[in-house]
UniProtKB/TrEMBL annotation, chains A, B:
This protein's name: HTH-type transcriptional repressor ComR
Signal peptide boundaries: none
Gene: comR_1
Lineage: Bacteria, Pseudomonadati, Planctomycetota, Planctomycetia, Planctomycetia incertae sedis
InterPro entries assigned to the protein according to its UniProt record, in alphabetical order: Homeodomain-like_sf (IPR009057), HTH_TetR (IPR001647), Tet_transcr_reg_TetR-rel_C_sf (IPR036271), TetR_C (IPR011075)
Species, as recorded: Saltatorellus ferox
Highest taxon, organism lineage: Bacteria
Keywords: DNA-binding, Transcription, Transcription regulation
DNA sequence: GCTATCCTTGACCGATCGGTTTCTGTTTGG
DNA sequence: CCAAACAGAAACCGATCGGTCAAGGATAGC
């Protein structure tokens, strides 16, 4: 039923390569020729496998989103330590990844910045991903508030949305920042604002 | 010394038109043909006046930044009311402008999202603009803290950077949000986090 | 060996890109 | 009236865009 050789390249790895290219140069800035060369396959294989440039782009975004969402949810729900400690660790990781020198920012944020005004399909997908992040943050915040680790007068949903916006803003600013100082300040301020009491 | 007619179009108004086009469609998405039609001048005049597409883009960004920075600084330094009230008003204005439905986000944020990895000239300009916003926020925060309107245990610089990141993040998310609820949450949380005491 | 399937290469397509140039008014100062 | 400086329209440039297509090479089952 299937004579002939198997695919000579790993499809999922090709998606990762495409993701990195889109990440670095954006959708418009990444040409079909660039993708061919980077992935190392011919154009026919590329179109046979992925259909179109846009489909490959959406697939790259989906893969990236799955990874990021999974990582954040896992980090926020780790047992054994306090919820606030989980939050601190996750925010620290985000700062390290997206706030350092030469950062490309978050691929999702870059996608939002480049989305066309009438691209409702992509907008809906991105909304969904952001909702997932927001809910993970909200669960963690509720738990931390229950344990008295976070000011109890805050609205968990508002604070969660704030953290999502903050993460995206930090990642965006990281694209033009000249060092990790700014992003460290941002995370420090976010955590300080959550703490119930403090004296310098 | 200057025979011949005056320029038949308003240069500054042309920059505003170009700004709106870049804002709506991004740099790559805006073609020279689009700019001609929108501004209403021929291509020769366009190149004679502005030099190149990129120069017109930079000029648009500069004009936008001047307007925004001016507006924020004026709003934050208004006398007669408390510094926190000024901050609340400015953040509310940002939310109204960038967080509503169909928002295009902040042009500066969009530019950051679309900047090329090796475009140091544009990156330096954007860094400068963000620094200006940060300093304006920091001055306002210091004043508010001095008046006891804001928790005194916060670091003004960290909090100012947080507000810049938050503004950019909110404006970015506004591009895919389906209503003003999210951006309102974000601003509400930011202000709640600054307040020294509260018992909802 | 034959055939079918997958792969790659590379030519090719119409369209559009940023930018230059040529031409034809048209308006102004002298 | 004339020359200089301006304007706009459009032809034109090489390059690149996303996408298609036709021709082989390689590998598998029969």
């Amino acid at each position: 039923m299937s004579p002939g050789p198997q695919k000579s390249f790993d499809v999922e790895e090709a998606v990762l390569t495409a993701r990195d290219l889109f990440w670095e140069r954006g959708y418009d800035g990444t040409g079909i020729r660039d993708l061919e060369v980077a992935i190392g396959i011919g154009r026919k294989s590329l179109y046979d496998t992925f259909g179109s440039k846009r489909e490959l782009y959406l697939r790259s975004l989906r893969k990236y989103a799955d990874t990021v969402i999974q990582s954040i949810c896992d980090g926020l729900e780790r047992e054994g330590v306090g919820a606030l400690a989980n939050l601190e660790r996750v925010l620290g990781k985000l700062q390290k990844h997206h706030g350092s020198d030469g950062s490309l920012g978050c691929l999702l944020g870059v996608a939002i910045g480049q989305i066309g005004a009438d691209d409702e399909e992509l907008a809906a997908f991105l909304r969904g991903v952001l909702d997932g992040m927001e809910q993970a943050f909200e669960r963690c915040l509720r738990e931390a508030m229950g344990a008295g680790e976070v000011r109890s007068d805050l609205q968990p949903r508002d604070a969660a949305r704030q953290l999502v916006a903050l993460s995206q803003g930090m990642a965006l600013l990281g694209r033009v920042s000249d060092g990790p100082a700014r992003s460290r300040s941002i995370i420090r301020a976010a955590l300080a604002a959550l703490r119930p009491v403090s004296s310098s």
